């Protein structure tokens, strides 16, 4: 397993890491070969033991006498934390992301400064079988909490193993099917982004909306979240369209959507219009007026192909606000005139910059987006691991702290269903760069 050492200069940087909002601030940190947080060498997963045993009996498979205990921890009670990542699976790009996430976990461990903290990295090989075996290997080494895996299918394989052993698992997937019953998803789910940007748009006077989304599972997930966000706030979805993710196949859906941008929608286009009934206008369905904003959950090259189609089909984008997702946080998009003034929800750049600077100081390069997830998960584990009560330091009550945590991407907390709630900023695309128009909250509101 390849990883890089943290540069000594990184320890001169003030740590602004994750802290429980209701707990104390960061401790000072230092490291040396014979003390401080430790990382063990992964010797590979054990032989597959078959299906997890029910009723918590899975834990009985693991002999505490065989739990890892480094030499400098012989007189201490280590806080053992499993870290499951695809170090040797998938493409070279995936392996590089895994390596950077491991680096971020090491950075968090050293910033936490707990001499008892022990990271136990395990290679999932990027496969479900590898993830299940890696989870068992971490448990056999004494892991009290497991961080990872990365992919939805590997989370689905590791989750039953962790649950059967009554060990919490903090995964980096946004697939909600695996969440709950001790499995938490530390990721960037679209639902929170959609709710935040929808709420902001409505506060700014937008009441009627359009949606144009890809015809895939992600598009359906976004459409569902958008409908729920509008229903909860009294907004109206005037019209929605789906498209195949090919520039040529975007033309017709964009043209159809554009017809619903008019101040007064022609009767024949209104939902509920019945040409067999004289005088039918479809007005009863609430879409006689055109949309004031359009949600466009696309990214990169495809977004730059899609966005100009609306003004091409006579949508006045000086009046209609384009809304997006965190993938819009891309400097290249500032060169697209059609996206000028577009709003989207994402982690606050003024917060994420601090982590990125510390990571670069430690490892000599900027972190990929997912590195912050490993950092936050590790520092969360380190914070909770400071409790002297081993039996309950990682129980649901502690992990689901309603005050939340403040990490590399800002404020977050876990719900009792295992999903994550984030404090996000609203950003705006402008030719001179991406600007913060509504900062991310620094604390969750009382009683929320």
Question: How would you characterize this protein structure?
Answer:
The structure is a single chain. This protein is an alpha/beta fold and 448 residues long. The protein folds into two domains: 249 residues, Response regulator (Rossmann fold), CATH 3.40.50.2300; 167 residues, Rossmann fold (3-Layer(aba) Sandwich). 29% of the residues lie in helices and 17% in strands. Strands 9-8-10-11-12-16-17 form a seven-stranded mixed sheet, sandwiched between helices. A six-stranded parallel sheet has the order 2-4-3-5-6-7, sandwiched between helices. A four-stranded antiparallel sheet has the order 1-13-14-15, covered by helices on one side. 46% of the residues are buried.
Q: Could you outline the blueprint of secondary structure elements for this entry?
A:
Layout: E1 19-20, E2 38-39, E3 79-85, H1 92-112, E4 117-123, H2 128-140, E5 145-147, H3 152-164, E6 169-171, E7 183-185, H4 190-203, E8 208-214, H5 217-233, E9 236-243, H6 251-258, E10 293-295, H7 300-306, H8 309-312, E11 321-324, E12 343-346, H9 349-363, H10 371-384, H11 396-399, E13 405-407, E14 410-414, E15 420-422, E16 425-430, E17 433-438
Parallel strand pairs: 2-4, 3-4, 3-5, 5-6, 6-7, 8-9, 8-10, 10-11, 11-12
Antiparallel strand pairs: 1-13, 12-16, 13-14, 14-15, 16-17
Key features of this structure:
alpha/beta; single chain; about 450 residues; about 30% helix; 2 domains; seven-stranded mixed sheet
């Amino acid at each position: 397993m390849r990883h890089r050492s943290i540069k000594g200069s990184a320890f001169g940087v003030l740590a602004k890491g994750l802290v429980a909002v209701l707990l104390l601030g960061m401790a000072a940190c230092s490291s040396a070969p014979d003390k401080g947080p430790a990382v063990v060498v992964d010797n590979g997963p054990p032989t597959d033991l078959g299906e997890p045993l029910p009723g918590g009996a899975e834990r009985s498979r693991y002999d505490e006498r065989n739990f890892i205990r480094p030499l400098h921890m012989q007189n201490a009670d280590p806080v053992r934390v499993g870290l499951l990542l695809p170090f040797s699976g998938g493409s070279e790009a995936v392996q590089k992301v895994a390596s950077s996430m491991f680096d971020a976990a090491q950075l968090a461990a050293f910033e936490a400064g707990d001499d008892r903290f022990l990271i136990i990295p395990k290679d999932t090989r990027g496969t479900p079988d590898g993830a299940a075996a890696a989870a068992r290997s971490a448990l056999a080494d004494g892991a009290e909490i497991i961080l990872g895996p990365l992919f939805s299918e590997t989370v689905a394989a590791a989750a039953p193993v962790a649950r059967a052993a009554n060990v919490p698992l903090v995964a980096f997937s946004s697939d909600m099917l695996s969440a709950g019953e001790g499995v938490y998803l530390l990721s960037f789910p679209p639902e929170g982004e959609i709710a935040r940007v929808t709420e902001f748009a409505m506060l700014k006077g937008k009441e009627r909306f359009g949606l144009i989304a890809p015809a895939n599972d992600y598009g359906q997930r976004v459409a569902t979240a958008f409908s729920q966000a509008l229903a909860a706030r009294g907004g109206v979805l005037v019209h929605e369209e789906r498209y195949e993710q090919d520039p040529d196949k975007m033309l017709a859906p964009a043209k159809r959507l554009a017809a619903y941008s008019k101040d007064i929608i022609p009767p024949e286009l209104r939902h509920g219009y019945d040409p067999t009934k004289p005088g039918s206008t479809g007005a009863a369905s609430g879409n006689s007026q055109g949309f004031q904003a359009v949600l466009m959950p696309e990214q990169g090259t495809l977004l730059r192909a899609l966005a100009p189609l609306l003004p091409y089909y006579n949508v006045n984008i000086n009046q209609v606000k384009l809304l997006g997702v965190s993938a819009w946080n891309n400097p290249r998009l500032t060169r697209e005139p059609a996206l000028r003034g577009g709003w989207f929800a994402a982690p606050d750049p003024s917060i994420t910059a601090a982590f990125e600077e510390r990571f670069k100081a430690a490892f000599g390069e900027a972190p990929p987006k997912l590195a912050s997830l490993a950092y936050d998960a590790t520092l969360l584990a380190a914070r909770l691991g400071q409790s002297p009560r081993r039996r309950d330091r990682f129980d649901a009550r502690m992990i689901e702290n309603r005050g939340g945590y403040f990490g590399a991407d800002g404020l977050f907390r876990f719900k009792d269903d295992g999903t994550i709630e984030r404090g996000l900023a609203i950003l705006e695309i402008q030719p001179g760069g991406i600007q913060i128009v509504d900062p991310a909250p620094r604390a969750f509101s009382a009683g929320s």
